[in-house]
Known about the structure:
Blueprint: H1 2-25, E1 31-38, H2 42-54, E2 58-65, H3 67-75, E3 82-84, H4 88-96, E4 106-111, E5 113-118, H5 130-137, E6 142-145, H6 151-162, H7 166-169, E7 173-176, H8 179-187, E8 193-197, H9 198-203, E9 207-212, E10 221-227, H10 233-243, H11 245-253
Parallel strand pairs: 1-2, 1-3, 6-7, 6-8
Antiparallel strand pairs: 3-10, 4-10, 5-8, 5-9
Helix pairs in contact: 2-11, 3-4
Amino acid sequence: MTGFWRFCSAAVVSLALFVGGGAGAFAQEPERILVFAASSLKDVLEDAGAQFDQSHNTKTEFSFGGSQTITRHVVAGAPADVLVTADDAWMAYAVKNGVLVDDSVVELASNGLVLVGSEALNAEAVELNAEALQAALADGRLAMGEPETVPAGRYGKEALTNLGLWESVAQRVAPMENVRVALAAAARGEVPLALVYSSDAKVEHGVRVLAEIPQDSHRAIVIPGALTSGHSKASEGFMEFLKSAEGRKIFQAHGFKVSGD
Length: 261
């Protein structure tokens, strides 16, 4: 009898382990959400994704790059659920190519422009006139997004043109593939000046703001987001989260402006 009960006991333990393991095996896997977004939105969107995943059975992942690059990838068929660009021109390009859900485009936030320099090199404030810019640049260059394709570069060229400063710096521009590359160049002291978004200056402690670009010198810098035609169900919830009061607070915390500011 002793051997029999020992057998029964072992059988019960084995069954319990099987059932427990089976429950874990059949637990629902987190639903993946893939967001294609502009490089300038990396910090804010990763923060938002982490907070969203905490209260949902989701795993939000990102592919960051220049707005022109990520949008072209989505148009070419990349498996994104959500597209968030740094301006409305590239979002309009995605709409025109029919890769987004109709009427899903929404303005999530807006941004501004600033001139920054290296904190370590004690860069000093710069007045927005040709003489002061030339003096600040010395033998160096002005890093900014590529003026013809990168949103930050287009806004920057527009602002400098309207301020009567473009001609004085056009030959000194170091065009970058996206605004975060320009920001990093200033932080490392590789360039004396970089023209970047206000939100970039807030997250990069290696730079200091040397001048704020007047808002009326360029078109409004809007941050639009939209669902792609092949989006997952979970991504709908993520977009709603970004538009919510909680989502707006995250954008504000990262230096963006939201409706009501």
